[in-house]
Amino acid sequence: MSDDALQKAFAAVSEASDDSKQLELMRTIITTQVIAQAMQPQQPALPARQEFDSKKWLTIGTLGVAGGLVASLFAVAVAIGWAGGYAVLCAVKSFAPCRKCRGLGQVERFGKPRTCPRCHGRRLRLRLGRRAHNYWRRTHQAGTR
Ligand SMILES: [Zn+2]
Prior knowledge:
Shape: rod-shaped
Number of helices: 4
Distance between the termini: 114 Å
Strand order of the largest sheet: 1-4
Bound molecules: zinc ion
Structural class: mainly alpha
Oligomer: single chain
Helix content: over 70%
Radius of gyration: 45 Å
C-alpha cells in the first residue's frame, strides 16, 4: 500500500508542476531507451550473425560452383577443340610417321640396319583415329549391306 501512496504522491507532484512532469517523461523515455539498447544487442545479434555466416558461405559456394563451372566448360572446350583437331588430322593426314623407326623405315638392331618390323619399311603408320574410323565404317558397311 505504501507504493501506491508513493505513486499517487508522485502523480500529484507531477501534475502540480510541468517541469517535474517533463522530467518524469524524460526519465521514462531514457529508461525505455536504455532497456531497448540493453535488449537490442542480445536479441538481433544471433540472427544477424547467422545471416552474415550464411551469406559468406553462400558467396563461397557460389564462387566455387562458378569456378568449377568455368573450369569444366574450359576443359570441355579444350577437349572438343582437341577432338576436332585430331579428327581433321585423321581425315586430312591419316598417315603419320612410324613411331618405332621415326619414319625411317629401318631400325638398327645389333649394329645392323634392318627393315622396321612395325611398318615393314613403309615408314608410315595409320593414325589410331583413322584406324578406328575405318573399323567403324567397315562394320557399318557390313551391317547395311
Ligand atoms: Zn617403322
